[in-house]
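Let us practice reading a record.
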Amino acid sequence: MQARLDAQRETVLEAAARLLAERGYAGCSMAAVAAEAGIATGSVYRHFVSKTELSTELFRALAGGEVAAVRAAAERGGADPARRVTAVVETFAVRALKAPRCAFALLAEPADAAVDAERLVFRRAFRDVMAEQVAAGVDSGRLPPQNPALTAAALVGAVGEALVGPLAEGAAPGDLIPALISFTVRSLGGRDAVDA
């Protein structure tokens, strides 16, 4: 019985994720999620007492996947700390631009206060992934002295702001990702190909 309830809860979250990617938070009413999941609306309420609870859980699941993806990108970035940070930025931007409606919902779409609180948690987690790389670069002398948490927080804000417009419009200029990488390298105190 518990396995069946857990499976139904997962089905509800998957249905909500599909709707979020298509319609944003406004399109994720309990009735719409139930219809997408192929179950009765009352069954959705069995797992989530409100849309706020469902939206919050959905946000945590999706944002957690994004944090895991950028953490893995940093680890694949090699020994160069700047490359590890640019791998985080590039991975985040590429993933966001592949799913613009969902990424916009996670980054900026108006939602309730509980989702906004989760956004702050997500931004801190994303910042922490980059701050670890910056700190390692400073410690090794491969990056100039700087406050790793401040640099990372500024990069998170800049990357998010640079992506919001293209995500809202559903289209990005072709040079957006290279420009973000160049900006990241310069923000870390490095020089990129344009500088050379």
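A brief commentary: The two ends are 64 Å apart (CA to CA).
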